[in-house]
Amino acid sequence: MTCCKLLVSVQNESEALEAIAGGADIIDVKDPFAGSLGRPTICKATEVSRAVGQKVPWTMAIGELANVSSQDLIGYTTILQRSLLELPLEEAHELRTVSPMAVKIGLAQMKYQNWEERLGELEALVSRFVLCVPVAYADAKEVLAPDPEDVFAQAARTGKSLVLVDTCRKDFGGLFEIIEETVIRRWCRCVQAAGMQIAIAGKLTLADIHRAAELGPDVVAVRSGVCVGGRLGRVSAHLVAAAKSLCGNE
Questions:
Q1: Mean pLDDT of successive 10-residue segments in the chain (250 residues)?
Q2: What are residue 165's DSSP bridge partners?
Q3: How far, CA to CA in Å, does 23 sit from each of 28, 145, 159, 205?
């Protein structure tokens, strides 16, 4: 069976603990009520970082490039770093492990803008803190985002190590209702051949996870499929454990 890592998106500390208990390999924090890549508050991001500690890596959504200025982002990142630095002295040895591994930025409404230059400016500001992961939207045409293959090419040219495929619209169908499996498999091979890793997401149900893992990504990212009550519900350790087994790394 194909084996890949499982990323679980959470919105608070209690969900992070559920995801870890279920065996998630990576924790991602976001505000699911604020869109596909809803940026969490600094308070929520910090509480998740403390819950995760040294257990697993964690990442964070920071919204859409069209709505985030470089100065806003660097200010937010600096404040987050400062909040981590304010941990009690006895926790100081954990600083490097509680900082986010990466931040994810979407490209909706950027197809006809100078998105490569703006993304480069943003990355130059945050790269000293974290890895910046561009999100290629499978529903790019509907949300006026750059074509996924253009995002992959830019990522390869600029030496990125990871890209994410996702769906922007969460009021619509999931990934497999938007794009054919053969296309996703080709994307995975293309990205990996360029020396990068690829994560795939997009309103995946529990039943979709094995199907996604079989396409050959390095990471399957999920929230809807591991929540009681759907994407806006709550993460369940039991469902995370089921998802983990479907990724082939039980």
A1: 87 97 96 92 85 89 84 59 49 51 93 92 76 94 96 94 94 90 97 97 94 96 95 96 85
A2: 136, 200
A3: 14, 33, 30, 17
Write the CA distances from 210 to 112, 206, 221, 224, 248, integer angstroms.
36, 8, 12, 14, 8
pLDDT computed for residue 46 by the predictor: 84
Task: Give the span between the Cα atoms of 97 and 186, in whole angstroms.
Answer: 34
Phi and psi angles of residue 105, each rounded to the nearest 5 degrees, phi first: -130, 130
pTM of the model: 0.89
- Burial label, 230 (beta-carbon count in 10 A; 0-12, 13-18, 19+): middle
d(Cα 157, Cα 195) in Å, to the nearest integer?
11
Q: What is the model's pLDDT at position 85?
A: 46
Read off the amino acid at residue 109. Answer: Q
CA distance to 54, 63, 81, per residue, from 151 (Å):
32, 17, 28
